[in-house]
Fold this sequence. Notes:
2 copies of one chain form a homodimer.
Chain A: H1 3-14, E1 18-20, H2 35-46, E2 52-53, H3 57-61, H4 64-77, E3 85-90, H5 94-107, E4 112-115, H6 121-128, E5 134-140, H7 147-150, E6 153-154, E7 157-158, H8 159-170, E8 176-180, H9 185-194, E9 200-202, H10 212-219, E10 227-231, H11 233-236, H12 244-262
Parallel strand pairs in A: 1-2, 1-10, 3-4, 4-5, 5-8, 8-9, 9-10
Antiparallel strand pairs in A: 6-7
Amino acid sequence: MNFQTKLRDAIARNNSLLCVGLDPNPRLMPPGVTMAQFNRAIIDATRDLVCAYKPNLAFYEAAGLEGVRALEETLALIPSDIPTIGDAKRGDIGNTAREYARALYDHFGFDAATVSPYLGFDSVEPFTSYEDKGVFLLCRTSNPSARDFQDLRVDGRPLYEHVAEKAREWNVHGNIGLVVGATYPDELARIRELCPAMCLLVPGIGAQGGDLPAVVRRGIDESGTNAIINVSRKVLYASQESDFAGAARAAASALRDEINEHRPGA
Amino acid sequence: MNFQTKLRDAIARNNSLLCVGLDPNPRLMPPGVTMAQFNRAIIDATRDLVCAYKPNLAFYEAAGLEGVRALEETLALIPSDIPTIGDAKRGDIGNTAREYARALYDHFGFDAATVSPYLGFDSVEPFTSYEDKGVFLLCRTSNPSARDFQDLRVDGRPLYEHVAEKAREWNVHGNIGLVVGATYPDELARIRELCPAMCLLVPGIGAQGGDLPAVVRRGIDESGTNAIINVSRKVLYASQESDFAGAARAAASALRDEINEHRPGA
């Protein structure tokens, strides 16, 4: 089943636009719990509340071989009807991008991946050519320094708008989406205007301080379904004690409901 | 020993600016040879001819756990007086970039890494704060689509020049360099003008078709040492038969000599 269909079904089944970022950080996890055990507990506690899971590869790579093994185990634990997004932000020349696409889609089996735009079309095409997979291109990211380059003005408009327009132009298979930070609701609204039908992956709610009602009002399209709102730390580390799974469930449930309050058709 | 010193020593010892990209591709390697065996043969055949080795992580990640193990083995095989550059082109928000820096510098033990600029300062700082390590920021890449965004004009100058200037501004620890493709000698000359003292990592000679004499004349500074010229496929796959190591040595030796013909002080 392709990414879009799997996502649409999961959104409807769990009545949720919430994506949980599976970013296990040993410095924040309860002592004595492995990454795979931690993720298993989080998945068991939230699988009826989410539309997707998004592991960020950095947290696994930091633990070396053990981390990569934990990522493989985690992907095997995620129910097959919940889409997975490999948050890898890769971007390399065509010959090499093909290897990254193989790693993320063929080896790990992610349903979608995040990709950086800086190298242009031939760095993105090896991902989009997997027509059943999703590709989220970084557009306006959630971090404070996003403005360093993304806001630079080209022909009177910020660089990120040019990225959004290129994404639209490159979207011949209909499998491109955009990453837009929740911390910048004005930019989010502008990108939604430029790309009315594109799926937006929106991180930055929670620990990063994004304004949830503003994000939902301005980032979701009229169907009320064309966005994925990612939360990591606020769910994973709702408690850092042995009750972390229950606390994660409560946090995820509250977030799902708060998102639904503001979206049409929930 | 910090990256800069190790690099300077290796350049002098081997009288070489040549870096070999250790990018093992099973579709091009002789049959029956593992990645680690392939790299061992390439390293044994070229260790007196290079100033650095640059594994691109994509090729290892495409092989999953086995690939990561092969990368660890490869790093253990590289003589400790030859610097290693982890070509990962990572770029993520600060909290996550710290995990990538841990993976590349602490876990794998690379002496330097490549980083993408799109997310701005707080995505780069977790790398540069390792003061003994090198950080090569993507500036003007070697691929045809580099122009899609990197050439867009901001205040009358291409985006990549703004990246070069930011890199200079951020370079408080003196450990930032720039990645500039050999396929664009005019852009290379312009970046050298903007950043006269910065180390440039120059891929794109060989399979990508960059013009070697032009690159050396225009990219290297007056000391004749402040650049690293990377070649991957033209060395690794000089022969795809069982004589690949000897063929790689001959190719690397010819490239080293050709670079030296055009650089001052070789």
